[in-house]
Amino acid sequence: MSYKNVVVTGISMLNAAGLDLQTSWQNIKDGKSCIDKITLFDTSELETKIAAQISEDFGPIATKMLPKRDKKQMTRATQMGVVAGINAIVDSGIDFAKCEKERVAVIMGVITSAYNERERGISESSIIVKSMPNAPSAWLSLLYGLEGPNFNCSTACASSAYALSLGCDLIKLDKADVVIIGGADSHIDQECIRGFNQILALSIRNDSPKTACRPFTKTRDGFVIGEGAGVMILESEEHARKRNAKIYCKIAGYAITSEAFNIVSPKDDGVGMTKTMRMALKDANLNPEQVNYINAHGTSTYVNDRYETMAIKNVFGENAYKIPVSSTKSMIGHTIGAAGVIEGIVTIMSINENIVTPTINYMDPDPDLDLDYIPNASRPHNVDVGISNSFGFGGHNATIVYQRYK
After folding, report:
1. Does 376 have pLDDT greater than 80?
2. Would you give the end-to-end CA distance of the chain in angstroms?
């Protein structure tokens, strides 16, 4: 059976580094820490008081871009996803009037709509619609009259990477010509922070927010919550070339697996992570030696960073020491459900600009973690093949392989 090739023709992201693709990409390239004290609510009763919030300028942007009545029925997190979707569609240049709309799908990775205490304080209208985690995909379908599959994927920190994998399946199997995939999330609320503190997952370095997230270092003490959204437009190569679309890259392969081990911890020594990366490379029909860059899950937690490093060594052997590895989370925090797509977009931009972005705050190396983590500053580097890892609570693993389009 022959499968259709999948290419990326539109991208958009917004996060603490910026409210559009170019601004956020530039700040990530510059190694800017976007973590600061939380201003959305009172943190006096919380152990963690820092996060990577998006700019307050997002409100006016959403007001300008979204229909007034629709916006009133969306939470801030849902608005992020829809705005990112609109921007990605514009970037792709696609005209849905010229598409078979029943062959255009929308799949978003969203864990929660974030209809929390703060949102309820603003308005308690449209409670049901605001509470729907499938709202971003539904709103995008409604805005453009898209009649293909339209659903939400909720697999913790791997949600948007799972959405991408499922979108690729639809195109490869000729079930769709175009799939809008993405993720949106905001876990910056009191309940979530309190819950993550209970399991010792968050950094409590409140006196130094800019240096709090320090993946792969000896002094890492947990991740920092971020928020944001990212969207990609996937198309079959045939469909994209027919409309003369610009093509950012090819989705060469992917793998989604279950650890089947522990609700919050990966298998010892990164066994599940190893399997996922190997399966993704096999799906891409690529050898480990062909990989030029790894965008790591890189949470800045003790277990993840240790086991992900071990898994990379398991997969790439001695060549692991020659492959640059970095954590985008060191700058924009952990965007949870949106992390997979945002970090995938960073990988795509690295391929297109031949530059690899840093792991900042890399000041105190862990002697047991000895790979090239691109410490503190971006560098020029040819990237023909990059992989992006996403590993979530519940044992949800995903690895996506991005390849330069020729």
Report:
1. yes
2. 23
Catalytic residue among 157, 192, 213, 249: 157
Catalytic residue among 34, 153, 192, 297: 297
In this structure, which amino acid lies at residue 334? Answer: H
Query: What are the residue ranges spanned by the domains of the chain?
Result: 6-242, 253-403
> pLDDT band for position 329 (50/70/90)?
very high
Active site residue 297: yes
Burial class of residue 206 in the structure, from the number of CB atoms within 10 Å of its CB (0-12 exposed, 13-18 middle, 19+ buried): middle
Among 25, 93, 99, smallest CA distance to 246 is for 93
Look up tokens 């921007």; give the residue.
87
How is 237-281 classified by DSSP, letter by letter?
HHHHHHTT----EEEEEEEEEE--S-SS-PPGGGHHHHHHHHHHH
pLDDT in tens, 21-35: 999 999 999 999 999
- Percent of the chain predicted with pLDDT > 90: 97
Q: Is the pTM higher than 0.85?
A: yes
The separation between CA 61 and the C-alpha centre of its own chain, rounded to angstroms, equals 21
Residue 233: is its pLDDT beyond 80?
yes
Please identify which of the residues 34, 153, 192, 334 carries the catalytic annotation: 334
Strand partners, 295: 326, 388
Question: Catalytic: 34?
Answer: no
Token pair belonging to 42: 């009172």
Residue 119 has pLDDT above 90, yes or no: no
- Please, what sign has the CA dihedral across residues 286, 287, 293, 296? positive
Q: β-strand 293-295 against 385-392: which pairing, if any?
A: parallel
What's the pLDDT score for residue 2?
81
CB 43 within 8 A of CB 189: no
pLDDT at 305: 98
pLDDT at 121: 83
CA atoms within 13 A on the CB side of 195: 8
Could you tell me the fold of the domain covering 253-403? Peroxisomal Thiolase; Chain A, domain 1 (3.40.47)
The residue type found at 102 is E
Check whether domain 6-242 has CATH 3.30.70.3400, yes or no = no
**How many C-beta atoms surround the C-beta of residue 131 within 10 A?**
15
Give the torsion sign (CA, 211, 214, 218, 222). positive
Q: In this predicted structure, what is the pLDDT of residue 117? A: 83
In angstroms, rounded to a whole number, what is the distance separating the alpha carbons of residues 228 and 187?
10
Our answer to whether residue 168 is catalytic in this structure is: no
Say whether 253-403 and 6-242 share the same fold: yes
